[in-house]
Amino acid sequence: AAIADFWVSKAANGTGRDGVAHILHVIPPDEYATGDDSVYTNSVAKIALDFATRAAKVVGRAPTPAWANASSAIPVLFDARRQYHPEYRNYTFGQKIKQADVVLLSYPLMVPMSDAVRDNDLAAYEPATDSNGPAMTWGMHAIGHLESGNASKAAALFNRSFANVQQPFAVWTETPTGGTCAARASPVL
């Protein structure tokens, strides 16, 4: 219940005249970005709110109506012309991102979408991703391509993630060069 109440409070603070519950000033998985209505963050919020509603019913409690209201008012951004999910409101198509973000919608979040939209998300964000980003990115792209039936592309991206393994102890690092992306993520770090 507490996580649902948290998302209700975040959504309520961003509700405008349009009746949409905007979640504002978010740093999503893509740590290069700060934006409003992160498609990943908004999807996680909706999942948490919907789960709390279902869980309350399972345990015989009345769900808080604000949970369902917030969930239905939180937008999951979609560009109908390009048939893909923009990372956040005012995202510029092709803008460099640090790591997997939107591609996490299909897995692990399991946000419903067509195969074509999932493939368009992969096609949009793979070339926009910083080549010095984390290995997790390429693993998530590999899963997306496996879902699409493109095993050769999945294998290439899975193997790409191993560039972040540093010898002699096979330690995984944030970047393929053995460093971190922290300095690029925030000027404070």
From TrEMBL:
GO molecular function, one term: hydrolase activity, hydrolyzing O-glycosyl compounds
GO-annotated biological processes: carbohydrate metabolic process
InterPro entries: 6-hairpin_glycosidase_sf, 6hp_glycosidase-like_sf
Homology family: Belongs to the glycosyl hydrolase 65 family.
Protein name: Uncharacterized protein
